[in-house]
Design a protein that fits this description.
binds zinc ion, 10% helix, three-stranded antiparallel sheet, 1 helix, mainly beta, 130 residues
């Protein structure tokens, strides 16, 4: 099905609000993209469907943000991590570590969904609990 970019962004946000991460799956070549895209990154098909992906991965890299944008001022410093999901796709998000735990390369993480001040759920990465 052909989908508009606006609709895709909304579907992604709706899924996060339901504590799920979705990607797009190409109906022609089955390539998955996370976050979802309107057009397949491999074959450029616009026949896109949605699929729920495993909310788990490993930490590829991170950066510590000391100077935050206005809505995050009270949270600085915080860690912004890039996580490689089990399917190889990469997602950026805030990393929440317990007191005294430092980020490490390849650290196993899972998604947590926190309610923001605006009432919407936000994706966070936390250490994976087996
Ligand atoms: Zn494709």
């Amino acid at each position: 099905m052909h989908r508009e970019v606006v609709q895709i962004v909304k579907s992604y946000e709706d899924a996060i609000n339901q504590n799920r991460i979705i990607g797009s799956i190409c109906e022609d070549c089955e390539t998955i993209s996370v976050p979802p895209r309107a057009v397949c990154k491999k074959c450029w098909s616009d026949k896109i469907d949605f699929t729920t992906v495993e909310p788990q991965g490993k930490l590829i890299t991170w950066t510590v943000i000391h100077i935050a944008p206005p809505t995050y001022v009270d949270k600085a410093p915080y860690i912004l991590g890039i996580v490689e999901l089990l399917n190889g796709e990469r997602l950026t998000g805030l990393l929440r570590l317990p007191e005294g735990v430092e980020p490490e390369f390849d650290m196993e993480v899972e998604a947590a969904f926190e309610e923001s001040l605006e009432g919407a759920q936000r994706l966070r990465w936390i250490p994976y609990h087996k």
